[in-house]
Specification:
Blueprint lengths: L2 E5 L7 H16 L4 E4 L3 H13 L3 E6 L1 H14 L2 E6 L5 H5 L6 H6 L5 E10 L2 E3 L2 E5 H11 L7 H13 L3 E7 L2 E13 L21 E7 L3 H7 L14 E6 L1 E6 L4 E4 L2 E5 L2 E14 L17
Parallel strand pairs: 1-2, 1-3, 3-4, 4-15
Antiparallel strand pairs: 5-6, 5-15, 7-9, 8-9, 8-12, 9-10, 10-11, 12-15, 13-14
Helix pairs in contact: 2-3, 6-7
């Protein structure tokens, strides 16, 4: 394996920067000719990904879900092979495909991973890996991105509780493969992965290999009911609640009476109105043979 490593030193409050020397050392055990570069910003990551793809190497991305998703989108478009290394606060993509939270351990285990074609979604043409969401989630993500007093995955819990206090219900229009619905309430999420927000298992039956988007509509309820449901999200036990409707499909159109921003992988992707689509098997990823929460185990698969 010839490897090209892109790192985001600001991810995870410095977690990536601290882990980078050990990750590089582990990858050089696999490929002594490893090329390693550091991003200055998201647009810089695009240019560096293009440079790595031109060499024909496996693209390794060390950072948070935002940078991993950005690099993955470019890799998918070019048909390259992708290896994510968890270095952020949430690491939800890696969690969903069964990788541990330690980027050094993932780097060392790279030769034991296998190539798997995973689905990749896009919101108004912007690729993402996890869950695109809007409504209360737009408020929560904005708070999380601005928060400095809470670190790690706990920042999303803090932001969710603060956002709930400020929230007023909205009207959403959602069309899933021609099935049009009107929703008054909290949010709309369009899931490819099961996780977002640093370990919240919001879409517990989402499968990154089934070619389908899992759309979840969260209708109105009292703030007390919402607060009581919130702890269940971490184990995926909230879904039986009657305020949640789940639909599956390949093309989703969303609009609302408020101009919400749409977030995914911890980043702002676009604004409403929004069309979300899925490319089945559109991203070649090195992932565990045994799968993960959003991947089934493989019986047979040739290792690289």
């Amino acid at each position: 394996m010839k490897l090209f490593l892109i790192s985001n030193p600001s991810a995870g409050g410095g977690r990536t920067a601290a882990a980078r020397p050990q990750v590089e050392a582990a990858l050089r055990e696999i490929d002594p000719s490893l090329e390693s570069v550091i991003t200055a910003d998201m647009s810089d990551a695009d240019a560096l990904t293009e440079r790595g793809l031109a060499t024909g190497r496996v693209l390794c991305a060390l950072g948070g879900d935002g940078m991993i998703g950005r690099v993955a989108g470019s890799v998918a478009s070019a048909g390259g092979l992708f290896a994510p290394l968890p270095g952020g606060r949430g690491n939800d993509f890696c969690r969903g495909i069964g990788l541990p939270d330690d980027p050094v351990a993932v780097a060392r285990d790279l030769p034991n991973l296998v190539e798997r074609p995973l689905d990749i979604a896009a919101a108004n043409g912007r690729p993402y890996l996890g869950i695109a969401s809007l409504g209360i989630d737009s408020v929560v993500q904005s708070i999380a991105n601005k928060t400095k007093i809470v670190r790690g995955g706990a920042v999303y819990t803090y932001a969710a509780l603060k956002g709930m206090v400020l929230w007023k219900h909205s009207n959403f229009t959602v069309d899933v493969d021609g099935d049009r619905r009107e929703v008054h309430g909290w949010s709309v999420v369009v899931a490819n992965n099961q996780y977002y927000g640093g370990g919240m298992k919001f879409a517990p039956t989402a499968d990154m290999e089934d070619g389908q988007l899992e759309v979840m509509l969260v209708s109105k309820c009292s703030k007390l009911t919402f607060l009581m449901m919130f702890p269940k999200v971490f184990k995926g036990e909230h879904v039986p609640n009657p305020m949640i409707t789940t639909i599956r499909g390949q093309k989703v159109r969303i609009d609302s009476d408020r101009r919400f921003k749409v977030y995914a992988d911890g980043e702002e992707l676009t604004s409403l109105p929004c069309e979300v689509t899925i490319v089945p098997g559109g991203l070649r990823v090195l992932a565990p043979r045994g799968g993960g929460p959003a991947l089934k185990p493989l019986k047979e698969q040739k290792q690289l």
